[in-house]
Amino acid sequence: MMRRKTALTEQELIEKYRRMTPSEKWLRIGELWRMTRSFHAAAVRLRNPEATERDVHREWMLFCLGEKLFNEVIASGHDIYRHLPPEPDVIVVEPIDGAR
């Protein structure tokens, strides 16, 4: 028989977070950040099944910055895609020091 988890009350949740160490809180923030990004990506792909990683990233930046600031960043020439991994069909080859 499976036991159901009971929902924590707000006070229990507050106490749980108070007992966490700073490093545990940082780890939790990272988990929540990744989960939020995943939900956002799923929503973008639900609206547009052909969306690429660049499309998802652009929508994320627009969501986080708001339209006015996003447009200012784009107008400044900042490359919002520079931290994205290459597309799956792109192979990046870098020379190895000492290799011939």
Describe the structure.
By secondary structure, the protein is mainly α. The chain has a domain at 15-75. 59% of the residues lie in helices and 0% in strands. It is built from 3 helices and no strands. Helix 2 crosses helix 3 (53-75). The longest helix has 26 residues, at 22-47. The radius of gyration is 20 Å and the shape is extended.
What structural class do the secondary elements suggest? mainly alpha
* Helical proportion, percent range: 55-70%
Overall mean pLDDT: 85
Oligomer: single chain
Q: Identify low-pLDDT runs.
A: none
- SSE string, helices as H and strands as E: HHH
Total helices: the number is 3
Tell me the distance between the termini. 64 Å
Estimated radius of gyration: 20 Å
Strand segment count: 0
Describe, in short, the structure shown.
With 100 residues, the chain is mostly helical. It has a domain at 15-75.
List keywords for this structure.
single chain, 100 residues, mainly alpha, 59% helix
Question: Topology, please?
Answer:
Layout: H1 10-19, H2 22-47, H3 53-75
Helix pairs in contact: 2-3
